[in-house]
Write a structure and sequence with these properties.
The structure is a homodimer. Helix content of chain A is about 30%, strand content about 25%. In chain A, strands 5-2-1-9-21-20 form a six-stranded mixed beta sheet, with helices on one face. A four-stranded parallel beta sheet of chain A has the order 13-12-11-17. Chains A, B: It catalyses: a quinone + NADH + H(+) = a quinol + NAD(+).
Chain lengths: ~450, ~450
Amino acid sequence: MKSNIKGDRPDTLPRVVIVGGGFAGIEAARALARSPVQVTVIDRTNHHLFQPLLYQVAAATLSPSDIASPIRQILRSQKNATVAMAEVTGVDPERQLVFMGDRTMPYDYLVLATGAQQTYFGKDEWAAIAPGLKSVLDAVQIRDRVLRSFEQAELQGDAQQCSDILTFVLVGAGPTGVELAGTIAEMARLTLKSEFRRIDPACIRVILVQAGPRILPAFSEHLSAEAQKALESLGVEVRLNCRVEDIDEGGVTVAGERIPCRNVFWTAGVQASPAGKWLNAETDRAGRVTVKPDLSVPQYPNVFVVGDTAHMESDGKPVPGLAQAAMQSGRYAGQVIDARVCGKPALPPFRYVDLGSMATIGRKFAVMQVGNIQWSGLPAKLAWLVVHIAVLNQLENQLSVLLQWTWTYLTRERGSRIITVPVGSSLTSQALPQPISDASGVA
Amino acid sequence: MKSNIKGDRPDTLPRVVIVGGGFAGIEAARALARSPVQVTVIDRTNHHLFQPLLYQVAAATLSPSDIASPIRQILRSQKNATVAMAEVTGVDPERQLVFMGDRTMPYDYLVLATGAQQTYFGKDEWAAIAPGLKSVLDAVQIRDRVLRSFEQAELQGDAQQCSDILTFVLVGAGPTGVELAGTIAEMARLTLKSEFRRIDPACIRVILVQAGPRILPAFSEHLSAEAQKALESLGVEVRLNCRVEDIDEGGVTVAGERIPCRNVFWTAGVQASPAGKWLNAETDRAGRVTVKPDLSVPQYPNVFVVGDTAHMESDGKPVPGLAQAAMQSGRYAGQVIDARVCGKPALPPFRYVDLGSMATIGRKFAVMQVGNIQWSGLPAKLAWLVVHIAVLNQLENQLSVLLQWTWTYLTRERGSRIITVPVGSSLTSQALPQPISDASGVA
């Protein structure tokens, strides 16, 4: 069965449709590589994105293509898989159809791995001012804004204006917010300082705003404190127990204080993609579909929801929205389908295995927590480097990222400091429609 | 004088303003590195672009950052140079002012190196349908369109529609058109064939349309013929002595024949940037400013026009619009200014030294002409590789390009096959405003 060649795949094989080519979707497809099924992966982009490194694109260290690989290329040798670049607009679970605008695709098994997008907790008008970081386009837009700010400040005679332009406020101190804050601060201090003749370094402020009592709340208190110290040593101002009350073109209001600034980036919360609405299924507060222990939807045993779109439990505890959880749940759903199709015994309930967490701050520091092991500083950074290179999808990307990191470390230069849109073009970063913030999935 | 540090540069030094950070502008700035002057380079992008490899970004082999370097980074160690990212909107040569919107910048010497842009010979309405290839944004948009076409064709059931989508018409058979045709044909045949399960390879057509009697007219007839054979062996249809009569959303009319197609790319002609209008100076048919033998403008001895914006002569013959001519003329203008400022004897008239020409077709073939030497095939390709790596601006870019080329050669994969804009976004490639096609200069 696995030697089916293109064009003559028997139409009688069960059709598995996977919506979303992120971590969960790709693993689901791979788990079905040897199954007697026809797999179709649908995504509205053509690439699988390695989201944990997306902040490095925003910070001009890496190019988009370093961390994105065409889904077709990843699944090229899997002969039972086809890929469709299309936007899924709905699902009819009764008639077993996926809608893509006016096209439909029938399925026998459906895996919804459509990811999550930024949420502004009801303040959707903030999205245009304070972009999130979910897609390649988001990252390129943030990069353009950061680099353009330095260019504008260099031309600016007025000290107050200059300070407004070079104040960067990051809302949300999870790994993405922390890593982005660290790398913007480092870029400002190491890379750009020698090249801008007029900017007063004292103008540059990077402020990280966190609603809760500590940064990186998923880590231990000890590591949170270490990470905060590392951020502060790079010049980042950390504001804990602070809520953002308002954002407009001129600045941010945080805990009653007005901070004039032109750059606000938002990593404070995620909302699941609308898969729950498509299915009319029960969801939690974050819009995630509550799934059964086998990750299927209660009413529809042939529909699975995985990754950030699913509210999954493991040993009675909710599974966190991490890449490793997405991969494990996608793989599990693929295995469940394989078992059913092949008549194998049913699998035990899904169980999430925590492989540990890491976050990095600047060139030399990281925190790492694996079971009872807690590392911080250079050893954790080395582990971070090895792990991230190892899990990148293609050898070419691994080599390219290794080259860029080595280069950046040695020279303090950034390899990808390109402002895509020229001055005077009607297409400025701000003019790009917002938000297009669901890269790994299909909204 | 050259040890001036930032902030305390004496305002009494002559001010040299260079408009455009392309090959000519950068060389002009570098030639002034040791002069007692204040140099300002103004460009509407933040990067210097290695335009000869831009087609490789369009063909998804290289990333934009592989061939673009921040102008600031290039001039970082030149202490008498500052860089401004701004759009020059005019010049007042009497009052010696450069206008950037409502800002002005005074100069003592002015170098206009604003490059050229695509021209449609009066048919400006074709620009939106048939983009040119001049800037990073152009290249990314062409890449998006090519890759998106394959994705659309894969979903398309109708054979005629599929064929329309996968017919690529390139207008103009200079080096850019030839290289782009070769690389699109090769990408279609080598890279993508194994990944698209439904596309019939017979649907894919690449058509190169040339108004004149042969391709690469700047080369010898022998090399033109060799290059044409190489293109045809990759499956490119070459149409000589053909004029494009019409272009619309549905296709192209070439010499009376209607070719239905969705992708037309235009490399057929260039028009100088509006520097001639700013100066109210005499220009040739292509809008290039006629300059004196020292590259200054007749009425204004302190204003120089160089590179693609200038109509220059050397030994009584017009100088071609090539990167090497831009670099040589920029360097010369810098040297003339240096001589005047330092009271050195006047330089002999500008003389263009032809270092030879090269063009490459696919992975294994190139043509090369240096004086009486004419090479084609693999030896020329190896020479092409060495020269292009050698002249890239930064070691990091050299290493990265070398890695990408080696990878593409060995695996036939493309390193940068990312469609930036997702399906269903209101921001499709076609919706981007056209043309923004003057990357090296300032329009």
